[in-house]
Amino acid sequence: MKSWPGIRSGTIHDAMNPETLEATLIELLGGDAKKVSRARDVMEQHSIDKWYAHHLPDIVVFAESTADVQAVMKFANEHEIPVTTRGGGVGYVGGAVPWKGGIVLSVRRMDEILEINPTDGVAVVQPGVILGDLQKAVRDQGWFYPPDPSSLKECTVGGTVATNAGGPRCLKYGVTRHYVLGLEVVLADGRVLRTGGRCHKNKTGFDLIGMFVGSEGLLGVVTEITVRIIPHPPARATFSVGFREFREAATAVQRIFAEGYLPSALEIADKFTLEAARNYPGNDFIPDGDAHLLVDLDGQESSVKSEVESLRGLLESLQPLSIDVAFGQDQCEQLWEIRRSFSYSLRDTGLKKLNEDIVVPRSRLMDLVHFGQQLQEETGYAVASFGHAGDGNIHVNIMVEERVLVEEKDKVDAALDRLFHQVLDWKGVITGEHGIGLAKKRWFSAATSDVSREVHSGLKAMLDPKGILNPGKFV
Ligand code: 2HG
Ligand code: ZN
Fold first, then answer.
1. CATH code, residues 350-437
2. What are the residue boundaries of the structural domains of the chain, listed by start?
3. Interior CA angle at 388 toward 84 and 356, to 5°?
4. Could you give the C-alpha distances from 393 to 9, 19, 265, 431, 436, in angstroms and in order?
5. In CATH, what number does 235-343 get?
6. Tens of pLDDT along the chain (475 residues)?
7. Whose CA is nearest to atom 4 of ligand 1?
8. Whose CA is nearest to atom 3 of ligand 1?
9. Contacts with 89 (C-beta within 8 Å, 6 or more apart), sequence order
10. Is the Cβ atom of 89 under 6 angstroms away from ligand 1?
């Protein structure tokens, strides 16, 4: 099997010719022709995400309500037409690529924030709301929705539910799953499941929410999400620390925990990543050195101030090249600009970025970086590592010229095989936040037991017996 599927052209689904498909869908969607499109540019836009796979759908549907989604699912199920749900389309693993053609069901127009209720500590949203917009709306009321993937200005809340998205703040605040209290899901046959609700604790039956969160569009279409919101910590501080080499920064990570600190974020970056960021326009503040650490603290003002003082002492004792500290949202965000740009600045190098969001037990951080260096020396491919050091979730990016993806495909596959098998040997996992999609399908078996895959298949067969939801992916 290939580790990336390359370019494929569209396949018109056999079940129905495209004109009939279009006319039928328009009728089912209340006669509104604006809810569907077969225009070439629209189909192209909905054939990709941020990974390297590409496959055209037969048609794109823009659902505007749960009823629209139900109508599409009932029809698709009856005619066994593939349906790939899509939010912002900014995933990293080809999860939203309609690999078997059929219908791309965009929920992007379902973009209303239905309620923000600090008294209950909940927000209720439609899946197409941009995550950054939800965070801002909640923040404007003094409240906080912590999950913060770097794509937060582009990704939808529905997409973050589909991937169980994380981000730097997961270290202290947890991932998307920890915030979803309730879901409305349209099942493959069009039935509507409402599970959970607006209570912060709920032990009624199985954890169906946990099953849908992170299911990458394979089990149902999420049409409404109730999330937990928490009071916004009034104070925040950020340390930006430059080190001579990665080893020193990794040591700092262990020392910070050993001394009893739980930062809200603890992010590391290596030399290649920093160089790319230095060459990226708009990045003003990049400390010297071949390794970099960002440490965020938040809480009440007095506790943040006293933690900053004692943490500064600890960091100074490690003799970094530089320590900068910022207080307050705006200043802290200036120090974070560089971190938020990594994904973009690495792409800007002109090299293709094979980003693998592996997780290792934290004690393996240095081993992982040594392994990356070894891989780089032996293959000649640059390896750029950065990410969520506090979680052991490091984005190990193999950076190659575009031609290498084709001409040296077997060699690249072999390098990725080595990386993933090493990570699994260390009891790590092959994805911490981006998911399996198409990109990691090749390693899904190695990463799971036979029984685990049987359970996955059993759930899939029960919820989607005709296999129409996001077919061609890992189950
Ligand atoms: C991040 O942490 C994202 O910035 C993207 O998960 C990681 O681009 C990447 O490799
Ligand atoms: Zn990440």
1. 3.30.70.2740
2. 7-109, 113-231, 235-343, 350-437
3. 45
4. 35, 46, 12, 8, 15
5. 3.30.70.2190
6. 233 333 344 444 555 788 999 999 999 999 999 999 999 999 999 999 999 999 999 999 999 999 999 999 999 999 999 999 999 999 999 999 999 999 999 999 999 999 999 999 999 999 999 999 999 999 999 999 999 998 999 999 999 999 999 999 999 999 999 999 999 999 999 999 999 999 999 999 999 999 999 999 999 999 999 999 999 999 999 999 999 999 999 999 999 999 999 999 999 999 999 999 999 988 777 889 999 999 999 999 999 999 999 999 999 999 999 999 999 999 999 999 889 889 889 999 999 999 899 999 999 999 998 999 999 999 999 999 999 999 999 999 999 999 999 999 999 999 999 999 999 999 999 999 999 999 999 999 999 999 999 999 999 999 999 999 999 999 9
7. 150
8. 150
9. 45, 46, 48, 49, 96, 159
10. no
Which ligand is nearest to the Cα of residue 347, counting in written order?
1
Pairing mode of beta strands 103-106, 59-62: parallel
Ligand 1 binding pocket includes 345 (Cβ within 6 Å): no
Q: Which helix (H) or strand (E) holds 444?
A: helix 441-447
For residue 102, the CA-to-ligand 2 centroid distance in Å is 31
**Token duo for residue 127:** 């899946």
CATH classification code of 113-231 = 3.30.465.10
Q: Is the CB of 343 under 6 A from ligand 1?
A: yes
Fold exhibited by the domain 7-109: 3.30.43
Contact present, 162 and 215 (Cβ < 8 Å): yes
7-109 shares its CATH topology with 235-343: no
Nearest atom in ligand 1 to the alpha carbon of residue 168 is 2
Ligand nearest to the CA of 294: 1
State in Å: Cα 66 to ligand 2 middle: 31
